[in-house]
Amino acid sequence: MPIHPTAIVDPIAEIHDSVRVGPYVVIQGPVRIDAGTVLGPHVVLLGPISIGRNNVLHTGVVVGDEPQDLGYRGGASGVEIGDGNVLREYVQVHRGTQPGSMTRIGSDNFLMTHAHVAHNCTIGDRAILASGALLAGHVQVGDGAFISGNCVVHQYVRIGRLALLRGLSRTSRDVPPFCIMDGTHTVRAINRVGLLRAGIPKERIVALRRAFARLFRTTGNLRARLDQLDGLEITEEVKELLDFIRTSKRGVCFGPRRNTDQELGAEE
Predict the structure, then answer these.
(1) Which of 122, 136, 228, 230 could bridge to 155 as Cys pair (CB 3.0-4.6 Å)?
(2) CA angle 153, 116, 84 (to 5 degrees)
(3) Neighbouring C-alpha atoms within 13 Å toward the C-beta of 219
(4) Cα atoms in the Cβ-side hemisphere of radius 13 Å centred on 86
(5) Distance from C-alpha of 247 to C-alpha of 212, rounded to nearest angstrom
(6) Pick from 154, 122, 165, 155: which is nearest to 141 by CA?
(7) Burial class of residue 54 in the structure, from the number of CB atoms within 10 Å of its CB (0-12 exposed, 13-18 middle, 19+ buried)
(8) Which residues pair with 27 in a beta bridge?
């Protein structure tokens, strides 16, 4: 196990022989790290933490520190990280607030510099958090979502699968799957490029665009419009979109207030 001589490693930590531990790393408490993971300089891991295989944690990453939550009263909580994730410089991932609770990151995610994942967040697989993206407590991020630079996500918000948040945007409402959001929780269009990259057939993307138009480009109560989709093709993705809206507790993003050139080009 290649551990740099300046690293400080708690003897109770369980570290696979193939893990590389860089200079000035601190590993404290019950930390388990599986095969192939690389810890860069000055990484700090404060257990309980479970980290899977083939992750790369770059300089200054902090995982498992106390939550920034005035309700935190101590007690054992932790962080679980899957396989194949990349956490770039100075990413922070805080442990859960309540004893026994967890902050969870799935597999194959890419968290860029200074991204912040607060207590009790759940991130699925293949998501991207660009530099400076900030997730407050209990946020849920679906598979393949893209949260652009310096976006701000309020606590308890859900980000749907393959949703895209444009840079500098902010939301305190749920972001529906497959949608592009910008400004203040305003959805502009379907994330056509992201859907194509995910292998969704073009005809099912067309069905999603039609559903989006009926739901977000007309006036009136959104929940009422859910029951007025006669003649709409209900594909698997459309059903996922509708179910997400129906199960929202915070309310979902608003549709665009008017059609501008920017909005009309958002799908391209």
Answers:
(1) 136
(2) 110
(3) 2
(4) 10
(5) 17
(6) 122
(7) middle
(8) 9, 45
Residue 163, phi-psi category: left (phi > 0), alpha (psi -120 to 50), beta (remainder): beta
Compute how many other C-beta atoms are within 10 angstroms of the C-beta atom of residue 170. 16
Question: Residue 251: CB partners within 8 Å, gap ≥ 6?
Answer: 173, 174
Residue 149, helix vs strand vs coil: coil
User: Which one, of 185, 203, 205, 183, lies nearest residue 194 by Cα?
Assistant: 205
Token digits of residue 69:
């939550």
Rounded to 10 deg, the angle between the 236-246 and 202-216 helix axes is 30
Q: Each residue's pLDDT tens digit in the chain (268 positions)?
A: 689 999 999 999 999 999 999 999 999 999 999 999 999 999 999 999 999 999 999 999 999 999 999 999 998 999 999 999 999 999 999 999 999 999 999 999 999 999 999 999 999 999 999 999 999 999 999 999 999 999 999 999 999 999 999 999 999 999 999 999 999 999 999 999 999 999 999 999 999 999 999 999 988 888 888 888 878 899 999 999 999 999 999 999 999 876 543 444 444 3
The three-state secondary structure class of 204 is: helix
Q: What is the CA radius of gyration of the chain?
A: 20
